[in-house]
Design a protein that fits this description.
The chain has three domains: 39 residues; 244 residues, Spore Coat Polysaccharide Biosynthesis Protein SpsA, Chain A (Alpha-Beta Complex); 65 residues, no CATH class. It has 15 helices and twelve strands. Strand 3, helix 7 and strand 4 form a beta-alpha-beta unit. The radius of gyration is 24 Å and the shape is globular. It binds 2-acetamido-2-deoxy-beta-D-glucopyranose (NAG) (3 copies).
Amino acid sequence: MLLRFRRIRRCQFLQLMTTCLVLSVVMVCWEQLNTNVVSHIKSYSYRYLINQFMDINKSFTIPREEARRFSDFHYLLDHPDKCTGQDVLLLLFVKSSPNNIERRHAIRSTWGNEAYIQKSLGVTVKVLFALGAPFTNKDKPMWSDTSELGFQKQLIFEDQLYGDIIQQDFLDTFHNLTLKLIMQFHWMHSRCAHARFLMTADDDIFVHMPNLVSYLQDVSNRGVTQFWIGRVHRGAPPIRRKDSKYYMSFDMYRWISYPDYTAGAGYVISSDVADKVYQATLTMNASLYIDDVFMGICANAIGVTPQDHFFFSGEGKALYHPCIYDKMMTSHGHVEDIHGLWKAATHPQVKRGSSGVFGRLYCTAVKMALLCKPYYLNTYPCKAAFL
Ligand SMILES: *[C@@H]1O[C@H](CO)[C@@H](O)[C@H](O)[C@H]1NC(C)=O
Ligand SMILES: *[C@@H]1O[C@H](CO)[C@@H](O)[C@H](O)[C@H]1NC(C)=O
Ligand SMILES: *[C@@H]1O[C@H](CO)[C@@H](O)[C@H](O)[C@H]1NC(C)=O
C-alpha cells in the first residue's frame, strides 16, 4: 500500500516536473520568438485577408499627374547606354548613400565586379549604385569638404572612374527610400528593359554571385514569370510606436498588417514583374517611405506574391562555414569582412567538400547543427539545412 502510494507520488511528481519544464521552455522560446506576440498573431491571421481580398491599392491609387511628383526628378549622374546591345541576365541596384564610398569600393572589388562575373561565370550582370543627392548632416561631418557641393564633386569623380552610379536630385535620406526604389524601376524601364531580372539590395549585403547566377540561369531557362524571391515577411504588423524608425501612422496605412513583402536587404524579381510594378508606380501614392513595404503594396495591386528562399537573408547574417557557403545567396550586415568572406565563400574547396553522397550528408548534418536551434537565431532558418 505504502509502496503503491509512493510510486504514484513519484509518478505525479515526474509529471509535474515535466510539465513545468515544458512550460518554461515554451515561455523562454516564446519570449525569444517575439516580444509583441499579440500584434503578430493578430496581423498574421489578418494577412490572409490583406493578401487576398482587400483593395489596399484603392486607397493608394491617385491620379497620374499627382503620382508624377514621386518620379519627376532629374538625373545628376546617369549611364543611359549601360545595357545597350547586351544580353543582361541581371540588373542589380545597390542602394547606397553618398558617403558610403568604402562600401561601394568593397562591392566593386568583390561580388559586384562585373568583369570577374563576365569572365568566370560567362554572363552579363550590371551592378549600379542608386543614390540621391548628398546633404550635410551638421552633427556628423563626413569628409574634409563637407558642403553639398564638395560631396557631389567627389561623387562625380568616383563615377568618372567606375561609371556605375545612378543618381537623382531628391535628397538621399531614409525617408526618401521609396523615391529611390521608384527611380530603379523607371531607370530599368527606360534604359534596361530587356534585362531578365532586377535585384535591389542594401550596400552592406554580401551576394554569393556564382550561386545567384546559376540559380537565376536555371529560373530563366525554365521560363518562369511572376517571379519574386527573397526573405518574405508574412503578415508583418505596422509599427505604431512614434519613436521607431519604421513608425507608420494610421493615416498613411490603416490596416493591421502589411501585405507580404520581401526584406529590402536584397530580393530579385523577373522583368515581367518589374514592368508591371513600373506601371503601378505611375498611379501610386508613394509617400509611404518604407521602400520594401511599398514594393509589397505595388505587387499586391498587380497580383504578384513573393516566395521565400531560405538562403536569402533578411536582417540576418550567414554563419561562417563552407557548408553554408555552398548554398548561400545573400547575407546581410557585411562591411569589414566582405573581402575575407568573398574569398572563403567562392573557394573551389567549398564545392568539392560538399559534393558526392558523403559530402552532402556531412553538410546536411553540419547545417542542422548550425541552424536548427530551439531558440531564435538571426540567420537562415532551420529549413535551409535540408535544401
Ligand atoms: C526627399 O527629397 C525631396 C527632394 O529633394 C526633399 O524635398 C524632401 O525633403 C526629402 N524628404 C525627406 C523626408 O527627406
Ligand atoms: C498620399 O498619402 C499621404 C499620406 O497618407 C497623404 O497625406 C496624401 O494626401 C496622399 N496624397 C494624395 C494625392 O492622395
Ligand atoms: C487593385 O486590385 C484590384 C483587385 O486585385 C484590381 O482589380 C485592380 O485592377 C487593382 N487596381 C490597380 C490600380 O492596380
